[in-house]
TrEMBL record:
Origin species: Permianibacter aggregans
Keywords, in A-Z order: Membrane, Transmembrane, Transmembrane helix
Domain HAMP: 172-224
Gene Ontology molecular functions: cyclic-guanylate-specific phosphodiesterase activity
Biological processes annotated in GO: signal transduction
Keyword presence, Transmembrane: yes
Protein name, as recorded: Diguanylate cyclase/phosphodiesterase
Transmembrane residue ranges: 152-171
Domain (EAL) ranges: 376-599
Keyword Phosphoprotein recorded: no
């Protein structure tokens, strides 16, 4: 319960108690007043009767005396009137059974009124003739007390409602600056807006506002400095030192962007075959000048974006609609070039493998230029039928990738989806989702994959399930994940490119986190917009992509990433294989390693 609500309830309860006490005290005061009035009225009536009976008693006219008393009794305000002689004997008694007043029994029992009685002497001149005793009727007093109580109750209730409404508004208005400070802090933490503190803060909250403002400035300055440092290191690491062209890491980022958009593109790559002889003949300095001249010529020669992948290998990317132009100014360099077309569904490793195979074939066939024939791609209708068949029959195959900590202890399992083809080929999850996205079947594919996972036997490990961004916004997929979580510990993850492309990612992962489902980001390459949104997402873990893996364990970029993740308590997993640098990776403060599935 919020502080505002608590204060409102407490103050409303205090007002209710005060109103109840005031109602009780006023009712008691009215009861005492009516009791005193009855007693005074009885005494006045007894005295008045004694004086009225004097003439009748002097004449020894008892009939007249009885008529005088009966006339007073018949007025109905008295329960009993008794006439006693000087010996205390009852001469005449008038008594009535009181009609019940229109008063609830619980009220009469809670606030009883005693029937008062009064007595007066009867005289005939100087001779005493007896006494007259009068007892009042309490029914009228009880009815008056009940009416007074009802009027007070209605008036007090209306006043209480008005006061409670006023108090709630005042409390809400008084604590509004505190809520604005909380919202400002929340927005600052999630990097939605800059932290701005409210004005006109009550004096008790001013120290808190100043402390929050000072803290937010320091945190924002530290985060901006760290993000700027990482961006600088990243930009330096993504440039070739000799030619100042983007290097292999930048090339992998560019491939990841096109894979996320399922965008058609072509890669024009070449390999310099006489680089070593030129170094020996002209020296490294002169050869580097020639490489810089080649890089400058490539940059200004056309629309392609050029990258230097390694010492002798270069590649340019031509997006859909751009026509790669052949290179004419080679200078002293000898080369083999190849042109490869891609449909945007290939992973970065598949593209690099295709480029390497094309250059090798061009070199083996001694061709200066070799254009790889386009693969016969399935039509959209064939892909639709293939995916619909797999979705309806759940023909997916899952192979587990083991996730271990630095000591080798198994932590979790990452399930990799495959679709068996008729020729025995396994179609990767990336190709599946790429085609499903193109055909509008992504949601159905995600649901079918999770349905297949639910048929696997559960175990005591944590399952990492890689989904698309669209799947997280699907109510069907979320229900499936919640059902799977009831019998198995799971974490969902999406790629960095899709996470950056989702503006409302937090809204989709909050229900899953509320159900104790983990969240991670896969294929992390520190692309544009990722660092600024990372504090907002606060994932449980990051899985580094190929670009960061190739930066190496000793790189400044990797050290900065580890420090940043450690500061935000985010785990880091590194996909590795048999690697000579594995001991160096173990030396880093990584959470663990992802090992490929056994073939």
């Amino acid at each position: 319960m919020s502080l505002t609500r608590r204060l409102q309830w407490v103050l409303a309860l205090l007002l209710l108690i005060a109103t109840g006490v005031n109602l009780f005290l006023q009712t008691q005061s009215t009861r005492r007043f009516l009791s005193a009035q009855l007693e005074s009225h009885a005494q006045d009536t007894a005295t008045s009767l004694a004086l009225s009976l004097t003439s009748a008693l002097q004449a020894n006219d008892e009939v007249m005396a009885e008529r005088i008393i009966a006339a007073v009794f018949d007025r109905g305000y008295y329960r009993r009137i008794e006439w006693h002689n000087v010996n205390g004997e009852t001469v005449k008694r008038w008594e009535s059974r009181p009609n019940p007043a229109a008063v609830p029994d619980w009220f009469a029992d809670a606030l009883p009124i005693e029937a008062p009685s009064a007595e007066a002497l009867l005289n005939a001149g100087w001779q005493q003739k007896g006494t007259i005793q009068v007892e009042s009727h309490i029914g009228y007093a009880q009815a008056a007390l009940w009416r007074t109580f009802v009027d007070l109750l209605i008036g007090s209730s209306l006043a209480l409602l008005a006061l409670i409404t006023l108090v709630m508004l005042l409390v809400k208005r008084s604590l509004a600056p505190l809520h604005r400070m909380a919202n400002a802090a929340h927005s600052f933490v999630h990097k939605k807006t800059a932290m701005s503190l409210p004005e006109n803060v009550v004096s008790e909250l001013q120290p808190l506002a100043l402390a929050l403002g000072h803290m937010s400035q320091q945190v924002q300055a530290q985060f901006n400095a760290q993000a700027e440092q990482i961006a600088q290191v990243q930009s330096q690491l993504q440039l070739d030192e000799t030619t100042r062209l983007p290097n292999r890491l930048a090339f992998l980022d560019a491939l990841a962007e096109r894979e996320a958009k399922a965008q058609h593109y072509a890669v024009l790559a070449f390999r310099l075959t006489n680089l070593a002889p030129l170094n020996a003949e002209r020296g490294y300095q002169r050869t580097n000048e020639l490489l810089r001249e080649l890089g400058q010529w490539l940059t200004g020669s056309g629309q392609l974006r050029w990258f230097r992948l390694s010492g002798s290998e270069w590649a340019g990317i031509a997006d859909s609609g751009q026509k790669p132009e052949l290179i004419t100014e080679w200078g002293a360099f000898q080369h083999h070039a190849a042109l490869i077309n891609f449909d945007g569904h290939e992973t970065s490793s598949e593209v690099l493998s295709a480029v390497d195979q094309a250059l090798n074939e061009a070199q083996q066939r001694k061709l200066e230029f070799f254009e790889v024939p386009r693969r016969q791609a399935l039509t959209a209708e064939h892909w639709r039928q293939k995916l619909l068949s797999a979705i309806q029959e759940l023909r997916f195959r899952f192979t587990p990738a083991q996730i271990t900590d630095r000591s080798g202890q198994k932590l979790a399992i990452e399930w990799l989806a495959r679709l068996p083809a008729r020729d025995g080929e396994l179609i990767s999850a990336g190709q599946l989702f790429g085609q499903a996205h193109r055909l509008g079947l992504t949601e159905s594919l995600d649901a079918a994959l999770i349905e297949t996972l639910m048929q696997l036997p559960n175990d005591e490990t944590l399952w990492h399930i890689n989904l698309t961004g669209r799947a997280l916004s699907s109510l069907l997929v979320q229900k499936q994940l919640l059902a799977l979580r009831k019998r198995q510990a799971i974490a969902v993850e999406i790629s960095e490119a899709e996470a950056v492309a989702l503006p409302d990612l937090l809204e989709h992962i909050q229900p899953l986190r509320a159900a104790d489902i983990g969240f991670g980001i896969d294929s992390v390459s520190l692309g544009s917009g990722f660092l600024t949104r990372l504090p907002q997402w606060r994932p449980d873990y990051l899985k580094l992509g190929l670009a960061l893996y190739e930066a190496g364990p000793q790189s400044a970029l990797m050290a900065a990433v580890v420090r940043m993740a450690s500061a935000m308590d985010i785990g880091i997993y590194l996909p590795v294989a048999a690697d000579a640098q594995l001991p160096a990776w173990h030396a880093l403060e990584l959470s663990g390693f992802v090992w490929p599935p056994e073939q």
